Amino acid sequence: MNIIFCGVILFFIAFLCQIIIWKIHIPERQTKALVVLFFCILTIGLLSLVIISHFYTITNWPVPRTSSDYLHITLLFTSLTLAYMITYSAIEVDSPSLLIILKISDKGTQGLDRKELEETMNDALLIMPRITDLLTDKMAYLEGDQYKLTRKGKIVAKIFIIYRKILNTGKGG
Amino acid sequence: MFPSYLQLMIPIMSLAVNVVIQILRFRITPGRGLLKSVVEGFIGGLLYVLMIEIYIQRYLFPSPFPEFIFMTIANTIIYAACGYCYFHFINLGETARRIRVLRELYECDGALSMQEILQRYHAKEIVEKRLGRLLRNNQVMYRDGRYYTKKSVMMVIAHIIVVLKWILLGRKNVFCFIVITIFQL
């Protein structure tokens, strides 16, 4: 009980803090800001729980008692945070599939012509912003007019290349 | 002390079971589709969580029933969140534009200009692949040269994302969009 209660409450506190901060100012590197915010809340939360469980020994309180309880709360919080961060990336950047669905949906019973779709879904909308993201996230850098991978970019690319070799699939995209 | 540390390992072991089942299933029968292999891997891992929890409760370290239920729920939530992350990891490799550009840069073994990147990967290819996927998964239908939306999971996801965008990023016109799409559903 204490693991679910503390883990989920801490996660919602972090989520509420994010909404408040984002309403004031949206950070430039949103994913990095999310990681820092959520893990700060986790650290503060766990320290508060240590203090609460030390001073209040009421057995019915759903506070963690053992070190494994704290580890379990950390694991629950981290898994929820990772799942949320991945979902957040779909909020931050418009997915082409969602854009296509929304464009078709906007036309309602009229339907949407292929040509109309291709006119609006162009390189400037779909590809160029993602290349800029690679520069912002320091996975690539620009030398003259040439884009080159940084060490971080090479590692990420290698992980996906190896995994797709294991799965034996094509190029994707 | 030992049973509680053992409990910590259960979601991690279940994720490993999920990954192994998914990879084996996709390699053995790739024709059945990547998404199905992900679902089957997830179900396999979920069954593993439940079986191990019941086994520990029954034969190794019996605990009071409410504690057993709460521990099982906690581990199921952790496993489900990790399984969701794994699904997205596969999905990133399959559909993410940034990953595709990274791979193009890596595989050309050097540098590419914007023009060269766009020759290898462009919006037309993206629209082609995505529309193909949406049609195959029955999320969109094609009739008389035009595309129409259908009731689908993708439409529900689109709603959730639009609402979250409104909550977090304050994007406007969300209510008009919701009203229109609810009528379409």
Task: Explain what you see.
- Chain A is mainly alpha-helical and 173 residues long.
- Helices cover 72% and strands 6% of the residues of chain A.
- Chain A has two domains: 91 residues, no CATH class; 56 residues, no CATH class.
- Chain A has a two-stranded antiparallel ribbon with strand order 2-3.
- Chain A starts with a helix and ends in a 6-residue tail after the last helix.
- With 185 residues, chain B is mainly α.
- In chain B, strands 2-3 form a two-stranded antiparallel sheet.
- In chain B, a hairpin with a 2-residue loop joins β2 and β3.
- The mean pLDDT of chain B is 84.
- At the A-B interface, α1, α3, α4, β1 and α5 of A face α1, α3, α4, β1 and α5 of B.
| Residue share in helix of chain A | over 70%
User: How many helical stretches of chain A?
Assistant: 8
Question: Could you tell me the radius of gyration of chain A in angstroms?
Answer: 22 Å
Shape by Cα distribution of chain B: elongated
Report mean pLDDT of chain A, rounded to a whole number.
86
Placed side by side, the strands forming the largest sheet of chain B appear as 2-3
Largest sheet entry of chain A:
2 strands, antiparallel
What structural class should be given to the helix and strand makeup of chain B?
Answer: mainly alpha
Count of spatially separate domains of chain B? 2
Distance between the ends of chain A: 43 Å
Largest interface: A-B, 79 and 84 residues
Separate helix tally of chain B: 8
One letter per element, helices H and strands E, the order of chain B comes to: HHHHEHHEEHH
Mean pLDDT value of chain B: 84
Count of beta strands of chain A: 3
Assembly level: heterodimer
> How many DSSP E strands of chain B?
3
Strand order of the largest sheet of chain A: 2-3
As a percent range, the share of strand residues of chain B is 5-15%
What share of the residues of chain B lie within helices?
over 70%
